């Protein structure tokens, strides 16, 4: 049974940094596409960042390019999102996700709040 668990997040002032991490179990996640999504109040969930299976390249939505860095450790079945130069508009619940074939798995989410 695949399970994902986020950690990190919290409250930070604008311009600060936070790191969220995801620990996965129940599979060999080097074979999964993994990434991060977020959902702000009253808005749909949106893709934020993904990373290729060997961890050599990340891809991002335009609004976080140059500020966020995604990484993964296939040996530990973990992946992380380092968020720098945070803005109030980054405030959201952040979800980690793993996908293989037609199945996508989600973590429970972790709150990130950026104060102005």
Label this structure with key terms.
7-stranded mixed β-sheet; mainly beta; 4-stranded antiparallel β-sheet
Helix proportion: under 10%
Cα(first) to Cα(last) distance is 40 Å
Summing up helix and strand content along with how strands pair, one would put the structural category as: mainly beta
What's the tally of helices? 0
DSSP E strands, number:
11
Strand content: over 45%
Order of helices and strands: EEEEEEEEEEE
Task: Assign an overall shape.
Answer: globular
> Which spans have pLDDT < 50 for at least 5 consecutive residues?
none
**Average pLDDT over all residues:** 96
Using the CA coordinates, give the radius of gyration.
Answer: 13 Å
What does the model show?
- By secondary structure, the protein is an all-beta fold.
- The protein has strands spanning 3-8, 10-13, 18-25, 33-39, 46-51, 58-60, 68-73, 78-83, 92-100, 103-106, 110-115.
- Helices cover 0% and strands 56% of the residues.
- Strands 2, 4, 5, 6, 9, 10 and 11 form a seven-stranded mixed beta sheet that branches.
- The protein is globular, with a radius of gyration of 13 Å.
Write the layout of secondary structure elements.
Layout: E1 3-8, E2 10-13, E3 18-25, E4 33-39, E5 46-51, E6 58-60, E7 68-73, E8 78-83, E9 92-100, E10 103-106, E11 110-115
């Amino acid at each position: 049974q695949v399970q994902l668990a986020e950690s990190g997040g919290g409250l930070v002032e604008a311009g600060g940094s936070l790191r969220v991490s995801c620990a996965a179990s129940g599979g060999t996640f080097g074979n999964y596409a993994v990434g991060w999504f977020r959902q702000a109040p009253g808005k749909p969930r949106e893709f934020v960042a993904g990373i290729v299976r060997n961890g050599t390249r990340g891809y991002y939505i335009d609004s976080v390019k140059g500020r966020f860095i995604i990484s993964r450790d296939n040996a530990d079945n973990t992946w992380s999102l380092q968020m720098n130069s945070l803005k109030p508009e980054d405030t959201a619940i952040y979800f980690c996700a793993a996908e293989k074939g037609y199945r996508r798995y989600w973590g429970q989410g972790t709150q990130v709040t950026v104060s102005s």
